[in-house]
What we know:
about 0% helix, 7-stranded mixed sheet, about 120 residues, about 55% strand, single chain, mainly beta
Amino acid sequence: QVQLAESGGGLVQAGGSLRLSCAASGRTFNIAAMGWFRQVPGKDREFVAARALSGGSTMYSDSVKGRFTISSDNARNMVYLQMKSLKPEDTAVYYCVARKTGIATYEYWGQGTQVTVSS
């Protein structure tokens, strides 16, 4: 199993920045990609960004492209989400996710960290 632990959420004013971190532990030897989803109460979880640990290719949702940057430290099994120019609509619980090699879906999820952007 893989355990994921997020940190770095909080309250920030619109236009501000936050950096989320996620630490992976457990059986991490064949993690292929890690990323972030977010969820607002009453709505479906929304894909935010993902990064392949081998090669470093990245994907972003259109809503965050150009404002958020995903990065990783493979040696430490860490993934980060640098969020800039935050908007009130970015307010959500942010979840770190991971998937193993050969698995198409993100089967591992963290507990989530709250990000609140005030207007």
